[in-house]
Amino acid sequence: DADVTQTPRNRITKTGKRIMLECSQTKGHDRMYWYRQDPGLGLRLIYYSFDVKDINKGEISDGYSVSRQAQAKFSLSLESAIPNQTALYFCATSDLVSDETQYFGPGTRLLVL
Amino acid sequence: SQQGEEDPQALSIQEGENATMNCSYKTSINNLQWYRQNSGRGLVHLILIRSNEREKHSGRLRVTLDTSKKSSSLLITASRAADTASYFCATDDGNKLVFGAGTILRVKS
User: Fold this and answer.
1) Which chain A residues have a beta carbon less than 8 Å from that of B97?
2) Least Cα separation, residue A103 to chain B (angstroms)
3) Own/partner pairs, A94-99, CB within 8 angstroms, 24+ separation
4) How far apart are CA B24 and CA B60, in angstroms?
5) How many CA atoms within 13 Å lie on the side-chain side of A49?
6) Is B94 helix (H, G, I), strand (E, B) or coil?
7) What gap in Å lies between CA B49 and CA B53, rounded to an integer?
C-alpha cells in the first residue's frame, strides 16, 4: 500500500551495529505498529503506538526500541543488531474510529551477519 | 496471548477449484480478520467478520465464524493463479491484532 512506506527496503548489517528502520504514512491514522515476520511463524508484534505520546511493548520488544516522531512517522531501532534479528519487518497503521483493519507497508528485509 | 492457528499449513489446488482454509483461536474475540500476503510483500486486508456474524461474503470470498467452536473458515471460490499467496487470520486482542502462522495457497494453472 503506497500510503504506508518503509525505508530501507533491504538492509544488510553486521552484528553489533545500530540500525534504524523508518515508516511513514499518509493515511492520517493515529495507530502505528511494527511487526516482525519469520518463516513459519506469522507476524509477531514488536511495538505499537496509539498516538504520538503513546508507546507500548508488543510480544517481542526485547532488543528493539521505537520512536514516534510525529503522527505520520514511526521508527524502529535495533540498538545492537544480532543475527537472530534477521527477518522481514513490517509497519502497519490503523484508525480504530473508522476502520479496524490494518494497512501494511511493503516491508524491510533485514539481514544481520 | 491468543493466536489464530491456520489449517492446513499449505494447500495446492488447480485453477478453478475452491480453496478452504481454517483458523482456530483460543479466547473470546470481537472480530476476526483475514489477510493475504503475496510473496515477500505487505499484508492486504481481505475481510472482517464480527463476533455476532456467522457468515460474510466479498466477491469470491466467503468467511464463516463459529464462536462456539472458536473457529473460522475462508473459502475462495473458482480460484485463479493470482490467488497464490499466504493467507493469515488475525484476532483482536484488546486494541491490537494477533496473527496466525498462515496457510500457503498455491493455485496451479
Assistant:
1) 45, 102
2) 7
3) A94/A29, A94/A31, A94/A33, A95/A27, A95/A28, A95/A29, A95/A30, A95/A31, A96/A30, A96/A31, A96/B95
4) 22
5) 24
6) coil
7) 6
Distance CA A66, CA A57 (A): 9
Q: What residue spans of chain A are helical by DSSP H?
A: none
Find the length of chain A: 113
Sequence-distant (6+) residues with CB within 8 A of B18 are B75, B76, B77, B78, B79
B37-85 pLDDT, tens per residue?
Answer: 998 889 999 999 999 999 999 999 999 999 999 999 999 999 999 999 9
A chain contacts of residue B99, beta-carbon cutoff 8 Å: 35, 42-44
C-alpha to C-alpha distance for A108 and A88, rounded to whole angstroms = 6
- How much is the pLDDT for B2? 47
